[in-house]
Specification:
The protein has about 240 residues and is α+β, with helices and mostly antiparallel strands. About 30% of the residues lie in helices and about 20% in strands.
Amino acid sequence: MNYVTFTRNARTLTRTQPSSGSSIFTDQMIVDFVNLSIEELAGDIVKADESALQMTAYTNLVADQRVYELPSNMLNRMVKLEIKLNGTNWSKAEEVDFNRIDTPVTTETDIRANFNDDPVLFSLYRQSFNIWSGSPIISVSQGLRLYYNINPHTWVTGDLVSTNDISLDLTATDVGFPSEFHPVLLYKVTRRYKTSRDKPIPLDYEEQNIDLLFQQALSNYRNANRDRKTAGAFPKDYGYSY
């Protein structure tokens, strides 16, 4: 479904499609309801298929730096971290709960004495992650590779005149919304409109049973044959690239 069709369907289902002039179901209302609905749906979609909204980002390893900021657009979890600790070969870093680290990590000497490189470990803290290894951190261009889930594209009113499909990525770092869930998104939006009226409008069958429709869509979505490749970016103030 493209943006124009989505908008037309939303107004048709809510009986707000004007014959002329503007609709009482405004563009801004549609965009606001869409973005709120996407926030509600995205987490469960990723649980059904963690690659659905997955991106890959690269950044430089900086000599003696063990703390790196997470991407600002990360949805809910890091999928995997890989590192070129020796400057040449990629190795997978294993996650460890920071609260379970019971050895000193105050100084670089402490860290190198209490960790090794088999495997390299990392732990999350707020919006960043720490790297724990027996070897020192050396400067390596594009030496960190992070796989993570991203929030789908945030709609703006200008999108509503686009004939591009909603599932298409707008840029390398701005992903679309999976087509399997376009009907669910539509009915969530029309439901929000109808229930937001001073005098609520009766709901259609799909709007009444939106949670069931979503669960059915999730069930069909699991293990489907998809090959989505996207590239991501770390926060720009750290000089990261994608």
